[in-house]
Each structure stands twice: as C-alpha cells, then as structure tokens.
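Hello,

Our lab assistant flagged a job as stuck in the queue for most of the afternoon. It eventually completed. Since we weren't sure the result was trustworthy after the delay, we are filing this so someone can double-check. Below is the sequence as submitted and the structure that was eventually returned. Let us know if re-running is recommended.
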Amino acid sequence: MKLGRKKSPSTQAVAIPARSETVTLALASGEKLPARVITSDPSVLLVGIMLPRSTLTASELQALVLEFNDVRGRVRLQGATTIQDAQEPDLIRIEGPRSLEVLQEREFVRIRSARPILVYSGNNHLQVQSYTVDVSGGGLLLAGPDTLKIGELVRFRLSTASGEEPIVGTGRVVRTDPQGRRAVAFEEITDLDRRRLVRFIFEIQRAERRRGLAQEETRG
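-- returned structure --
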C-alpha cells in the first residue's frame, strides 16, 4: 500500500464521488461495505450497498463514513445519513456531505495488469503496440519496446476496460529492469484520466479479494 499519510485542511472544498463510482461505506465497527453511487450532488448522495447485509441500524447510520479515491488521495465524507426507502434498505441517502479529511499518500498502489497500450516515441512519433506489466496512478511498467531510452519522453494511449475511452497522457522513461522492460513515470495526465485509472486499479483489487475469499470458502 502507500507509504505516508497526511491530513489535509478541512477548509478545502468538498469533493464528492461521481455517479456510478464504486465507493466504500465504513462503519464504526470497522466493517467496510462496497457501494455504488446512484445520485451525485453536492447537497445529497444516494448510494446502493452492493453486498447482501442486514439493514443498518440507526446508530450505524449515524456514524457511517463514505470513502472514495480522489486524485488528492483517500477522501472521507460524512453527513445526515438515512435509509432512502424502508422497502429498499440497501439504498443509503447522505444529505449535506462534508469532508472529514483527505488522506494524501506519497506512493500510488501498484498492481500487476497486462493491458494493451499504444506508445508514441521519437521525433517522428513512431507508434508501437505494447502492453503493460503493471500500472499505478503515477506510472506504468511496459513490456516494450526495447528501443525506448532512459529519459525519453513518450505519449501513450492505455486501454483499461472494454468500451471505455483510452487513458492518454505523456510520460518519461525512468529506468529499465533486467528483462528489458521500461518503467514510465507520468508527466502529463488529466485529473479525470488519473482518477479513472485509480478507479480501475481499485476495481481490480476488489475483484482479486473476492476471488481470494471464494477460493477460501471452496477449500473450507
């Protein structure tokens, strides 16, 4: 995980998660519930819990904290929290969301993921099809090409999920490893694309955790 944490001032403008974004609902007991944003508005958030669970109690709702990843770090929000409809207890309404803190962290989570990527290098912007070995919010490791030199600036188009627009930007080759793979650190990438990439990384982590739990249950 990331190494250092620093609380940002609470006077910053409140950031809220986007519609359809996956977030975490943290209970005072330490339990973490995955949820998805249905309505995103500065005055009210409506989120749906994604896993079956007993209805949250009044005390659980009162202490509930919504967490999500912003380009600045891990954002934690709280507000007047209620169940939207007694007939649908998995729908949670958070009115007047306010920021508790933003945990700014010095290193991005890195995951192993082979994703297709187009790399443009050189003065002629030579296009090369390659794939990633691992990715993070701050850069990626490329399987190739081996023609890239340390210090070289490249443009890239990274494909994450089917049907999604590619993540684009520029990066600089900062090192090679014994296998000849190239590590690229991002230099220019929009906040939106970095946020999409961080979301993609956490979705993969959640999927891996779910697979791990399923394997444990099968062995049990």
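-- support follow-up --
The delay was a queue issue, not a problem with the job. The result is valid. Residues 207 and 213 are 10 Å apart (CA to CA). DSSP finds two helices and 14 strands in the chain.
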